[in-house]
Amino acid sequence: MTYEIIGITVLWLFLYGYVIVASIDFGAGFFSYYAKKTKKDHIINQLISRYLSPVWEVTNVFFVFFFVGIVGFFPDTAFYYGTALLVPGSIAIILLAIRGSFYAFESYGSKQSNVYMFLYGATGLLIPASLSTALTLSEGGFITETNGEITMNYLKLFTSPYSWSVVFLAIVSVLYISATFLTFYASRANDTEALKLVRKYALFWGTPTIIAALTTFIALGQHNQRHYDRMLDLWWVFGLSMGFFMISLGLIYIGKYYGLAFISVMLQFFFAFFGYGASHLPYILDPYITIYENATHQSTGIALIIVFIAGLFLLVPSLILLMKLFLFNADYVKGKK
Amino acid sequence: MFDMDPVLMSRLLTTMTLLFHIIFATLGVGVPLFISIAEFIGIRKKDPHYLMMARRWARGFVITVAIGVVTGTAIGLQLSLLWPNFMQVAGNVISLPLFMEVFAFFFEAIFLGIYLYTWDRFKNQMIHWAFSLPVVIGGGMSAVFITTVNAFMNTPEGFTTGQDGFVTINPIQAMLNPATPTKVFHVLASSYVTVAAILATIAAFSLLKKKSSEYHKKALKLTMMATFIFAILTAIAGDMSAKFLAKEQPEKLAAAEWHFQTEEGADLILFGWLNEQDMPVGAIRLPGLLSFLAHGDFSSEVTGLEEIPEDERPPLWIHYMFDLMVSIGMALVLIPLLYLILMKTKKWNEHHKWMLRLIVLGGPLAMLSIEFGWIYAEEGRQPWILRGL
Amino acid sequence: MRVEEAATTSPYVDLMFIFFFLLYATLATVGIIVLRKLFRNNPVEVELEKKYPSIEKGDS
C-alpha cells in the first residue's frame, strides 16, 4: 500500500466519522425544531440536549481534521477547491459558526428561545446541503481550468439533476441516521414516550433514504460514466450496504435491539461511503487532481501518517472515556447525573 | 462584486478574522490554566471560594470557547479559500503542525466536555481536577503548533527546491525553524498574562461595585500574582524575540524602530512621527538602547533599513504597533507590582479605589496588546507571505 | 512568495468580507449578552450559599 492510498483512506475515515456524528447532530436540530412546531418538544428535547451537550465540539473537529488533512496530503486541492469554493465554502462556514455558537449560547447561556431553535433546526438541513456540493464538484464538469485560472460554472451546478439528487440524498440520510441514533438513545434511557416518537421518525425516513440513493446512482450514470461503471464493478459493496439497511429497518420495525439497528445503519453508510470513495479513485477532482500525481512530498506524507497513528493512541482512549461517561453510562443517559 | 481588488480584500478579510479569533484563542489557551489552579487550591485548602472560582470561570469560558471554535474553523478554511496558491505550496511543507494542532484541539475538546459535565460525579475531587490537565495541555499545544506555522512564514526552512518545486522536505525541521522558539515562548507567556489580567479585571470590577467580598479578594490576589509572574516572562520572551529579529529578520526590527542607517550604539526611538525626509520627530530617544535590545550590548551594530531593497521593506507605521505593545507589556509588570507592594505593606490598602481602577484597565489593555503584537508580527513580514521565497 | 502572488483571484471576496463582518458582529454581540446574563442573574454570593451552605454569612 502506498502512502497516497493510506492518506486518502485516513481522510475518508475522518469524513465518514464526520458524516455519522454530524448527521446525528444536524438531524437532532431538525427534529427538535419539528417537535416544537408539533408541540411535542417536551417529549424529546431533554433527551437530545443530554446527548449533544458534551459532544458538540467533538463533531466539529472531525470536519476540521478532514480539510486540514486533505490540504496536507494533497496540497493541490487547496488550489482548485480553494479557488472554486470561495462562495459556497464561506457560506458553509457561516452556517456552521451560527449553529455551533448559538447552540452553546442556548444550552449554557439563557433559556430556550424560538430564534435559536429555528436557527438550530434550519442550519441542520442547510449545512449538509451546502457541504455535499463539494462531493458533486469532485465528479468533474463544474470546475474548469484555463491557463491557470480556475472558474466554477454555477449555472451548470444549479441545473444539474445529479447535483440536486446529492443534496436530497444528503438531507434524508442525515435524518435517517439521526432518527435511528435517537431511537437507540431513547431506548437506553428507558424513555418510552420519546422512544415512540423517534422510532416513528426512523421508520418514516428509511424509505426516502434508499430512494434517494438509487436516484443519485442513476443521475451519476448520466454525469460521469467512468465513475458509474467503476461503481457497478463494486456492486457487492453496495449490496452489503443495502443488506444492512434492511437489517436496521427490520430491527426498528419489530422494535427490538435498537443498538444493533444503529450499528447496522453505521455499517450501511460505511459500505456505501467507501464503495463510493473507492470507485471515485484515483481522482480527487476529475480530471485535475489524482491521488498519485498530486500527493504531497513523500516525507510529509509519511510524517502525517505517523502523527495520525500517534494521535489515534491519544484520542481513541479519550473518546472511549467520553462515551463511557456520557453515552453508555446508564445513570447519565437516564438523567440521574 | 464591487470591483474591489481581491488581494486587498483577502488581506482585510484575513485580518478581520484573525483579530477576532485571537481574542478567543488567547482566552482558550489561558483560562484553563487558571481554572485548573483555582480548583487545585480549592481542593487542597478545602476552600469553597476557590472551587467556586473554578466553576464560574469554567462557565464563562464555555461561551468563549464556542466562539473560538467556530472562528478557528473559519480561519482554517479561509487559509485555503483566500490563499489557495500559498496553501498549495506551503501545504507540502507545513501541513504537519496544522494537522497536529487539530489533534491537540480534539484532545482538549474531549476533556473539556468531560470536565464541564462531571463536577460532582467523583468522590475523589482530584479525579475531576485531573481532567483539567489535558485541557490545559491541549490548549497550550494548539498554540505551540499553530505558532510554528506562523514562524515558518517568517523564516521558512526545512526544504530544498529544484526546477519542479520541492526536491527534499523535512517537515520537522520546517516546524523547528529559527523563528519558532522565541515566537512560541512569546505567544504562550503573553496568553497567560493576558488571561490573568482579564480575570483580575473582573475581580477588581466586582470589588469596586460591591466593596468587600472575600471571594473577589481571593480571586484578585491569585490573578495579580499570576499577572506579575507571566508579565515578567513575557518581557523576557519579548527581549529574546528582538534579539532573534536582529539576527534573522532585521528589516522587521528596523522598520518597527525607525532605524534607517546601520550604526553602532543605536538609539531606541519611542513614538514620535516622521517628517518629509523620513526623520523621526517628537520622539523619545533612549541612547544605545536599540543596540542593547538587539544584541545585549549598548555599542553593538544594528542593521538599518537602508540595507534592505526598497520593495522588500515592511510599512513604517508598525512602529506604533510595536511601541504600544511594549508599553502595555511594561504596564502589566508595574500594575501587579504596585498591588503586591501595597499588599505586603501593612499600613497600605491594596484594595484602594484607585488601585482597583488601575487593575480594571489592565485586562482590556492586555488584550489590545495582543492585537497590536499580531498586527506588528504580520505587517512586519510584508511584502512576503513566505519570506524570501 | 509575496502576498499578492498568493491570494485568490475570485471577484467575490468583498461580498464575503461583508458576510463575515456581520457574522463576527453578531457573535460578539450575542456572546456579550449571554455572558452578562449568565453572571448577572447568578451572583456569586447566592451561588456560594446554595452550593456550600456551611459557609459563614458575611464571609463571602
From TrEMBL, chain A:
Primary location class: membrane
Its Gene Ontology cellular component terms are: plasma membrane
Pfam families hit by this protein: Cyt_bd_oxida_II
Compartment list: Cell membrane
The membrane spanning regions, by residue number, are: 6-34, 55-74, 80-105, 117-137, 162-182, 202-222, 234-254, 261-281, 301-327
Record's keyword terms, sorted: Cell membrane, Membrane, Transmembrane, Transmembrane helix
Keyword Transmembrane appears in the UniProt entry: yes
Q: What topology does it adopt in the membrane? A: Multi-pass membrane protein
Q: Name the InterPro entries for this protein.
A: Cyt-d_oxidase_su2
- Belongs to which family? Belongs to the cytochrome ubiquinol oxidase subunit 2 family.
Can you say what this protein is called? Cytochrome D Ubiquinol oxidase subunit II
This chain's source organism reads: Virgibacillus halodenitrificans (Bacillus halodenitrificans)
